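In response to the reviewer comment on reproducibility (Comment 2.3), we provide here a single inverse folding case reported in full, input and output, so that an independent group could reproduce the run without further information from us. The structure tokens appear first.
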């Protein structure tokens, strides 16, 4: 299959292109060759290359940046997705959109499944949800894949931040009252590749198995990396950020469960693989 990937140089995009390249003809695009906010350029690219599937990873992912500059968040995450979905409609391509646990408010008290009501509490979450909505309005052949707490070798992320802080300081302050599902980009890429074979379009939650707080995640990172720094748990309210984050955005993979495909490994095991690759780099 011919697959065009937007945001191909990003943390997930890089691993996704590597995985899909084993099986498919991949067209990797990112800034500056393809700016998803430029309507004419998005249409021209898709009409020239005629992919059967577009995987839309491009996004403005800096959550605090989105809060400070909502116009840019909606321009990239919502309008950009509107452009990509419209061009897919024109060339009759299917679309896979990578969305987020931030579409939920975090108040449910148990993991969210794909049938739960969304209610984002941040600009990033609202702008990504608007992307989902425009896809659902324009297309019938789409996969909306909500993932969370991504870590990978090819981008800035929580694991890398904790490792670097722990090398410089004896203690690392980490939020203890927010829960979620850490996810290795290599595992998400594998799951996305698998879903491209499914006849069932729609909304999917995909993360590594298991869940934890940020503080528990940091403790496991330090334990596995053999670093002696101590995690100092703090409340989210003490963290200096303009963004309201969901306090419990654990995702249940109900769509995968119903299809007998919920087989992602636990995040601790995925973390060990990540550290195997990244250990020499910090
Ligand atoms: N990171 C997470 O924890 C997480 C969790 C759930 C869902 N997601 C979603 O997963 C996807 C991939 O995330 P990621 O963490 O891999 O993000 P990332 O590393 O920030 O990758 C996003 C890519 O999109 C590019 N981009 C930004 N603006 C663009 C534009 N106007 N046109 C074209 N490309 C543009 C970025 O380029 P520059 O770097 O040059 O700006 C970057 O290469 C995103 O859709 C994100 O919303 C992420």
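Designed residues, in position order:
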């Amino acid at each position: 299959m011919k697959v065009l990937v937007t945001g191909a140089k990003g943390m997930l995009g890089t691993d996704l292109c590597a995985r899909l390249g084993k099986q498919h003809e991949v067209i990797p695009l990112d800034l500056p060759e393809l700016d998803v906010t430029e309507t004419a350029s998005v249409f021209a690219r898709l009409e020239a290359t005629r992919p059967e599937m577009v995987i839309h990873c491009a996004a403005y992912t800096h959550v605090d940046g989105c809060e400070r500059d909502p116009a840019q968040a909606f321009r990239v995450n919502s309008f950009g997705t509107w452009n990509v979905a419209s061009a897919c409609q024109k060339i009759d391509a299917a679309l896979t959109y990578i969305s987020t646990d931030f579409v939920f408010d975090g108040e449910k008290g148990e993991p969210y499944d794909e049938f739960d009501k969304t209610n984002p509490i941040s600009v990033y979450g609202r702008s990504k949800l608007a992307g989902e909505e425009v896809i659902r309005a324009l297309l019938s052949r789409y996969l909306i894949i909500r993932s969370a707490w991504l870590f990978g070798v090819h981008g800035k992320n929580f694991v890398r931040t904790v490792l670097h802080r722990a090398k410089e300081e004896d203690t690392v302050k980490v939020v203890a009252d927010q829960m979620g599902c850490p996810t290795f980009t290599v595992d998400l890429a594998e799951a996305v590749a698998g879903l491209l074979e499914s006849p069932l379009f729609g909304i999917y939650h995909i993360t590594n198995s298991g869940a934890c707080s940020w503080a528990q995640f940091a403790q496991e990172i330090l334990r596995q990396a053999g670093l002696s720094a101590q995690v100092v748990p703090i409340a989210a309210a003490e963290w200096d950020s303009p963004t309201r984050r969901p306090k419990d955005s654990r995702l249940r993979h109900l769509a995968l469960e119903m299809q007998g495909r919920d087989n992602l490994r636990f995040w601790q095991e995925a973390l060990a693989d990540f550290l195997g690759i990244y250990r020499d780099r910090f």
